[in-house]
Amino acid sequence: MSIVPDIQAQEDVIFPPRDLCSDEPPLESYLHLQQLMLLLNCLDSLWRDRNDFFSAGNLTIYYSQRQRKSEKYRGPDFFVVLNTERKPRNSWVVWEEDNKYPSIIVELLSDSTAKVDKGVKKEIYQNIFQTPDYFWFDPNDLEFAGFHLINGIYQPIQPNSQGWLWSQQLNLYLGVYQRKLRFFQPDGELVPTDQEKSDKQTQLAEREAQRAEQEKTRADNLAAELEQEKQRAQQQKQRADNLAAKLRELSQEPGNW
């Protein structure tokens, strides 16, 4: 007897994709992409010698208690997980990472995401992720705010005199500089990108070369002045020798004058 497959039953079964990576939509604009890459570049450059963190942007975080990637997931625009192995990942799967959640999250606001970032996502990051530091920034109108988790509730971070907000997790300030969200060291020094660091080193090298050239010019001028003094002294000696020779010709000693 032949067996006829139940086609309708097969169509009712929905299999999730085998290799889920990032389910996040593309960023709102090139301005948002620039901002995201700037944060990643600066932190990676600053912590290039550290291997105990993972930083990512627009990457999916899977956090289903039933360990199902098809159920609960969110994708912060930028996040950092501390005390973990620094290695490439296609996504952050909480139950595969010792149940670690992000230590800090930054959302980049837009007209289409601001309501969710300030509402639903903030509640998830506070109540489920329990992420200690949460910030949001709008690359267009420069709206900037930050929160620190205190007794399970996000409390606004008070800005310093420059308007920067302190991240206890990163031990860095976040602040707006030239219309971009940047990191600042505790002493107020801007955390540079690799390109900015290279440009600064080039400028320092050029200034050093200019100083060296100026020193060489001054040394050459001094050497020229000394040579002129030497020539004048030789000329004076020559005149004195000539005069002494002339006097001897007249049978008169110079000392008798």
Q: What is the succession of H and E elements?
A: HHEEEEEEHHEEEEEEH
Class computed from helices, strands and strand pairing: alpha+beta
Mean pLDDT: 85
Approximately how much helix is present in the residues? 25-40%
Q: What CATH architecture of the largest domain would you give?
A: Alpha-Beta Complex
Q: Biggest sheet, strands in spatial order?
A: 1-4-6-7-8-9
Number of helices: 5
**What is the name of the CATH topology of the largest domain?**
tt1808, chain A
Strand content: 15-25%
What is the straight-line distance between the termini? 149 Å
Model description:
This protein has five helices and twelve strands. The protein is 37% helix and 20% strand. The longest helix is centred in the last third of the chain and has 56 residues, at 194-249. It is rod-shaped, with a radius of gyration of 36 Å. The chain has a six-stranded mixed sheet. It has a three-stranded mixed sheet with strand order 3-2-5, with no helix packed on it. The protein is an alpha+beta fold and 257 residues long. It folds into two domains: 11-192, tt1808, chain A; 199-256, no CATH class.
Describe how the helices and strands are arranged.
Blueprint: H1 7-12, H2 30-46, E1 53-57, E2 61-62, E3 73-74, E4 78-82, E5 92-93, E6 104-108, H3 114-118, H4 120-129, E7 133-137, E8 144-150, E9 153-156, E10 165-167, E11 172-177, E12 180-184, H5 194-249
